[in-house]
Specification:
The chain is α+β, with helices and mostly antiparallel strands. Helix content is 26%, strand content 44%. It has three helices and eleven strands; from the N terminus they run αααβββββββββββ. Strands 2, 3, 6, 7 and 10 form a five-stranded antiparallel sheet that branches.
Length: 186
């Protein structure tokens, strides 16, 4: 007769803690028998749908303002190109946009400028294109320059906002910048 058989034949009384632990284990095993892989998949899909609907609600339903200005600077032997894009990432439209792009040399002397006006920019949209480009032909390259950007617009609640940016450029052939206002709820 082995040790296992001897231990099975012995009647050992359980302490109350051991009895309680045994009851909990039996209840857990009973509950685990009701959990199937199909139920786990269904609950995961429902949880994913709840998370997705929360993100959609925050993005499209809750009113907020967020404006981003993206700038790309490119220089070559023929001159400089400054590309600009205005993104209205907020859930409300903005109006009365005025953008002024100035290209300054190292002595803060204005080499060229362009301006852009738009009456309205809808929510979750952007504007870019030829009217937001500044092409400077002729000045010597590989010197330090400054791109000065002023953006003024009116929020949906009629508050005026202004973004003023200065970027030092000239060390690289191509440089990218992005500036966002952050999220402003309600």
């Amino acid at each position: 007769m082995g040790l296992l058989e001897k231990s099975k034949k012995q009647n050992i009384e359980e302490t109350p803690e051991e009895e309680y632990a045994h009851d909990v284990l039996v209840k857990l095993e009973d509950r685990m028998s009701h959990i199937s892989p199909f139920r786990v998949i269904i609950v995961s899909i429902v949880a994913l749908m709840i998370i997705a609907s929360t993100i959609v609600a925050m993005t499209w339903i809750v009113p907020y303002d967020k404006v981003t200005v993206d700038v790309v600077y490119i220089q070559s032997s023929a001159g400089h190109v400054i590309l600009t894009e205005i993104d209205n990432d907020g859930s409300r439209s903005i109006s009365e946009l005025t953008l002024v792009i100035r290209f300054l040399d190292s002595d803060n002397i204005e080499i060229d400028r362009t301006s852009f006006n738009k009456t309205s920019l809808p929510a979750h949209s952007s504007v870019s294109g030829d009217s937001l480009e500044l092409i400077v032909i002729g000045p010597s390259v590989w010197e330090n320059y400054t791109i000065d950007i002023d953006l003024e617009y009116t929020k949906n609640n009629k508050d005026n906002s202004k973004i003023q940016l200065e970027y030092g450029v000239g060390e690289w052939k191509m440089e990218q910048f992005s500036h966002g206002t952050g999220i402003d709820f309600f």
